[in-house]
Amino acid sequence: MSATDTIRNGEARQPAFGFWRRSYAMLVKEFIQLRRDRVSFAMIIMLPVMQLTLFGYAINTTPRNLPTAVLMQEDSDLGRSILKAMENTAYFRFTREVHTVAEFDELLLSGKVLFGVEIPRGFERAVRRGDKPALLVAADATDPVAAGSALGALGPLVQSALDHDLHIGDPPEMPFEIRTHARYNPAADSRLNIVPGLVGTILTMTMLIFTALSVTREIERGTMESLLSMPIKPVEVMFGKIIPYVIVGFIQAALIIGIGILLFGVPILGSLLLLAALTTLFITTNLSIGYTFSTIVQNQLQAMQLSMMFFLPSILLSGFMFPFAGMPVWAQYIGEGLPLTHFVRIVRAIMLKGAAMQNLQYDTIALAALMLLAMTIAVTRFRRTLD
């Protein structure tokens, strides 16, 4: 009998459906292993649910109810009718009433409002005389998407809403001029909006991953046991892990900003020293969060997965890609708990508006609070590992 016949006879003696049985056994094994890997299992379920929820409910490319301040230098029926008409457009929501031009400018500079409406003295009397006075609408154009939609629809929508109140001529004409002023980015150049936001986005991604992997790498290589045997405190371990990456993050930030200035013409109107200090605070906050992730996961794959789950809502709810003010309230609450939200406001305000520290107090305090919270959780969990 030839060797070929022996092989054929051996194949003939194999159990029926052996290939499918072995494949089925491997399939069952893989599902059991996947079920035990809770982080991967959560990624399978949570990522599509999170994306559908955020894109379906939170993301709005035509934002409405944008925060607006009003400077009424005269209190008149006509002025109130105009404000009501602007609210009826659904683009503007009047949240502040100021009494001086300085307050008006400070609200726009700090980002507390996106629009400001100024009704000058003698406005109603000038309208009655037919002088066609000017109504000033100032916009924070650092986010061209949020400002452009509202400003583009302002004229016709207000005219339509006021047809019944101020019908002059046939067809009706606007008895006053709407003078718009897009501040900080009058040309609506998207590069001036994107490049500063990219500083925070890239730093968030890299800092989270670097730190989360640094600790889990120690665990996988078995060097964590020797580290724990040393007379070193959890805080000292954390600072030793974080500080090198603070320097790395600072180099990254300088590289991105330098390229933005040289290639894209993005200005830095504010203090470079203030920008450097708050960038360092942001880097440390993200490193603390990444360190916290490293105390939760068991391997580097899980660290990457958890970092991506945190990065997705950060990039969608921070105001980097979509207007923050146009999101529903629940999405804004989530966004306020993300470091990237506050840093995007900070870096755009310093670079494009020339904002000073007094204009950035809220976002600075929020970043510091998030950093302290993440550090506390990280040290607590690492201490449990030591025990």
From TrEMBL:
- Name the UniProt key words of this record, in alphabetical order: Cell membrane, Membrane, Transmembrane, Transmembrane helix, Transport
Q: Which domain of life is it from?
A: Bacteria
Question: Where is this protein chiefly located?
Answer: membrane
* Occurrences of domain ABC transmembrane type-2 (ranges): 147-385
What's a Pfam family in this record? ABC2_membrane_3
Subcellular location per UniProt equals: Cell membrane
Protein topology in the membrane: Multi-pass membrane protein
TM segments? 39-59, 194-215, 242-266, 272-297, 309-331, 364-382
Q: Does the keyword Transmembrane apply?
A: yes
Q: Which family does it belong to?
A: Belongs to the ABC-2 integral membrane protein family.
Spell out the protein name for this chain: ABC transporter permease
